[in-house]
Protein 1
Amino acid sequence: EVGLLLKVASDGSISRMLVSGRILYGERVRDALVRHLEKDLGPLALPHIPPNPSPFTIAEYFPDPEISGFVDPRHHAVSLAYVIPVSGDCTPTQEALNLAWFTPAEAASSKIAADMTGGQDRLLRLGLAHVGKLP
C-alpha cells in the first residue's frame, strides 16, 4: 500500500502529499530520511532504510510549471526521491491533517492525481514504476 498525507500546500490548498523535506546543513541523507519520516508518520513508523540509500529519481522543481512539470513557486529546488517501506504504526503528525493508505492502482488513479499539486502525482507514479507496481 501507498501512504499519502493530507496537508495544506504552499498555495493554501488542501492536497495529498508524499513525505518530503529538506536536508539540513551537515546532515546525512539517511538521517534526513529518518527525520522526515518520523516527523510526518510518527516515531513508531519503523522505516526500512538501507545503510546507503539511493534515490529512484531526481526531480527538479521550478517556479514555472512549463519547465519540468515539478512546481515549487518559492524557488528552484532539486529533490532526491526514495521509496521507503514502513512496518510500524503510522500516525500523521505536525502539519498533516490525515494519512490514508491506497492500493497502487488507487494511488496512481486520476482521482488521487487531482488531489495532488506541484507534480507530486508524477513523482508517485515514477516511484510505483520503480518498484514494479504501476498499474
Note: The first strand starts at residue 2 and ends at 8.
Protein 2
Amino acid sequence: MQLDSYAAKGKMTILYHLLRGRLQLDETIAERVFACTSCGLCDVACGYNQSEAIHEMKAVLCKQGVAPPEGYRKISTSTRESGNPYSANSAEGDTVLQSLSESKLSSADYTLFLGCTQIYRESEEIDSLLKILRAAGVSFRIPNEQICCGSPAYRVGDEFQAFEQAKRITTLFESMQSDKILVSCAGCYRMFSNDFKLLMNDESRFKTTHTIELLQELIKQKRLKISPLNATITYHDPCHLGRHSGLYDAPRQVLSSIPGVRLVEMEWNRKFAKCCGAGGGFRAGKVEDSIAIAANRVQEAKATEASILATACPFCLRNLRDGAASIDSKIKIESVESILAKLVL
C-alpha cells in the first residue's frame, strides 16, 4: 500500500475494496485505518461523513479480532484493567476526588465530572477550575469515584468497552440523582453529549455543559471579577469541542472579556482548525508523529505573534506543550481556565 492509504481518501479507497471483497481485513489494513486522530477535518474538506466511516472500520476491525497496532490496543486494555487509559492506579484517582470538599456534598446544581487526563496528567487544571467555580459561587459537587468516560476506547473502535464505561457512568449519575453534568475535557463532552446516545441507543438522561459555556454565562452575569492581562492570545479549537460539537464562540468570548487581552486567530481556525495530533488514540499509537503534528500547530500559533496559545481541552493542552518543547518554542500554552484562574479576584 502507498502513503496515500494513510489519508482519508486512501481509507475510503480501502473501504471501497473491502466492501467489494477485493481486500481482506488484516493488520496492514488496521495499521492504515487506525492512523487517524478522529479530528473530522476530512468531513469539512470533502462534505461527506468520512470520519464516521473510518470509526466504523475501526469498530469492525476490533469486532473481527484484527489487532490494531500495540499503542492503540493498550488504550482498551488499560481502560478495562485499570479503569483509565493511562494504566494508572484507579485508587489514586478516587483519592484525588475524595480529597475535594465538594465530593462530600449530597446535592448541588451541577455534578462536576473530572476526566482521566485532568486527574492523572494535568492535575493543576483541577485547581484552576475549582478556584473559578468557587469564586463565582457555583453550586456543584464531585463524584467520589473516578470512572473513565470511555472516549479513548471508543475512538480506537472498542465499542464494547466504551459501552461498559457508559453503563458505569450512567449508573453513577443516576445514583447521585444528577441530571446536569459539567465537564472541562472536550473528549468527555463529546462522549456524554453525542456518543452515549449511540452506545446506549437512547436519548441521554442528563444534560452536559462544558465549563467554557458556564464561564461564558458567569461573565455575562457579572459573577466574576477579573483583573486585566496585557497579552495577545490565540485560541486552538479542540476537535471534539469545535468541529464535532460546534462550540466556537464561547471560548473566544471568555478570552475577549478579559481586560487588556487582544485575541488573534491562527490561519486555520474554527471548523477548519488543525488538530493537535493527540486524538483517536494517535498519541498512544504514533507518539512521534502526534508530537510533530502538535509542533506544526504551535508554529502556526507563533506566526500570529501571540504570547499565549490557549485551548479548552486538557489532552490538547498536554500534546501542544510536548509539541512546543520538541521545537524549543517559548510560547506559553495554557487552558482558558488556568488563564482566568490567575486573574479572578
Note: The first strand starts at residue 110 and ends at 113.
Protein 3
Amino acid sequence: MKATNLLRVLQRFLLVPMLGVALFSMSLVASPAAMGDEPKTLEIGVLGALTGFGSAAETLIVQGTEVAKDWLNEQGGIAVNNQKYLIKLVIEDTKSTATGTVAAATKLVYDDKVKFIVGLVVPYMVEAGGTVTEPAEVLRVLAYNCAMPSEYGPKTPYTFVGENASVEGAIASLSYLVESHPEVKSVVFIIPDDGSIPFLGETVKKLAEERDLTVKGIIGWTHDTVDFTPIAAKAIARDADAIHMTNGWPGPLGSILKAAREAGYTKPIVAFNNPAPDVTMVAGKAASTNFITNGIIWDAEGNPPMIKELGARFVKKYGNAFYYHFCGVNILYHLVQAIEKAQSLDPKVVKTQWEEMDTIETVYGTGRMCGEKTYGIKHTVCHPVAIQVLEDGQVTQVKWVDVYTP
C-alpha cells in the first residue's frame, strides 16, 4: 500500500474513538446431499461495519476473514464426522450502529439460520448483538470486550472472546512498563467513555496497584471527540510518572501522544492492541518517543510462522498487513478449532467442548483459555503479544510476552 493511501486510511481513525471491530457470523448450511467424499458448504456470514464510522477498521477485519477462508479451504476446510466443509463467506453490513447490528444479526439468525456468530468490540454493540444471540442460543465469539458484565460474563453463556482484549492488553502493557521503567511509581489512565469506565476503570486500577503503582485518576473521552488536546492536558495535570491510554484506535492514541509531547510531557506513554507504526503515522515522528504498545510488524524477526505466512498473503492481496487483519484471521480460526474439537455443528455441543479446552492455537502462537476469576466465565482466548517501543520515531519490536488473565 502506498504511503499516501496508508495515511489516508489511518487518518480516518482520528474521528473513530472506540469503535467496533467487526461482527462476524457463522452459518452452517449443509449443501444438497453429497456423493462420496464431495465436500459440503459451510456458509460463514461476516458482519462488519462496511459503512459508517467503524468502516475504516472493520473493513480490515473483513479482509482478514477472507484470507482466513482461503487459507483454511486450501488445507481441506473443516472436518466434522468425516465430512469435509469448505467455507463460503456471506457478508452483511452493520452500518456502525447498535440498531444496525441488531438488524443484521436478526437477519442472519432468523432468516439465514445462523448458528455461530463472531466479532464485535464496542460495549453497546456487544450488548445489542447479545439481545439476539443469547435467547436464540447462538454461539458467538467476540473480537473484544471492555470488562462490562452486561456484555460478557456468566449472563452470556453462549459468548466467547477470541482475542486479547482490554484486561489482557492492560496486563501486558503495565507489566512491561514497570519492567522497563522502574522509576515509574504512578500512572493516570485515559479510557473511552463508552459505558465501560465504571468496570474497566476499577479493573485497571487494581492491575496497577498489584504492580505497586499509584493511580492518579481516570480521564474519559467521548466517542464524538475530535480535538484530544484537552484530554492530554487533563492527564498531564495529574502529574503522574506515566500516562496509560486504555483502549482506543490509532487516531485518538496518536492525537493524545502528539498533544502530550507538544505540551512538554516527556515521561512514558503506554497503550496496547495498537501497533506502533500506525500510531506514529498520526502522532508524527517528533512526538513518537518513549511510547510503549503491542502490535504486529508482520515481517519482524522472531515472529511466529503463521504471522509471516499470512502477512505475505495480506501484502499480496491488499498491499499491506495490518494488525486488524490478523484479528479477522484469529477469530475465525479459533471458532473452527472449537467446531472440529466438538465434531458437531450444534452450538450447544461446541460450547461444551470449548469450555473443556485449556489451550488453543492462535496466529500469535499457542494460546490458553482463561478469565474464570476475572470475568466469571472461562471463555477468553489469551495469547502472546509482541511488545513494541517507539523512540525518536523508530519502531522496535522488543520481545514476545505471554498473557494470561486469571
Note: The two ends are 40 Å apart (CA to CA).
